[in-house]
Amino acid sequence: MNRDRENIALSADGNDANAQSYHTFRKLKQEYRENRLFQLLYKCSHLFLHRSNRHQGKNRILLILLAHGDMTQRELLAHTDIRSASLSELLAKIEANGDITRARSKENARNVNVALTEKGRREAECVREEQLALSKELLAPLSEAEQAQLEQLLLKMLLGWQRLPEEMKHEHKKASSAH
Fold this sequence. Notes:
Helix content is 76%, strand content 7%. The protein is mainly α.
């Protein structure tokens, strides 16, 4: 803190070399922190993915159906961040494995109803238990308050990332219309 005051005082004295050095140092320190945070997030996500089951897409679909019950493929799409074609391909594989059934709706032939089979329900319950045990293990070093704080920070990051593509599209439109 005192060092920052000294550097601010130096820059206020008009010594441009000191001010530039100070700002360069602050920038490098910030870049180092951002890079370090990125590395830590990467390591945590890598650990999580490799300790959890390999079939993340399948497991996610099974867990959604277990939690929300039978639904149309369109409703299932709304619960995921998966493109429609990718979801169709994934559902075909899960259906071939015997974990779900898909059938055209009698009320509206454009809708496909998706339901867990008994085998799929057992699989989903096992996955849920494994995920609960894994999350308990991975979050054990954090107190309840730290877990709540981590949740808020992660949500804040996700919201920022979700806005980013829209902002980029908006900037691209502005740049395109200027030319």
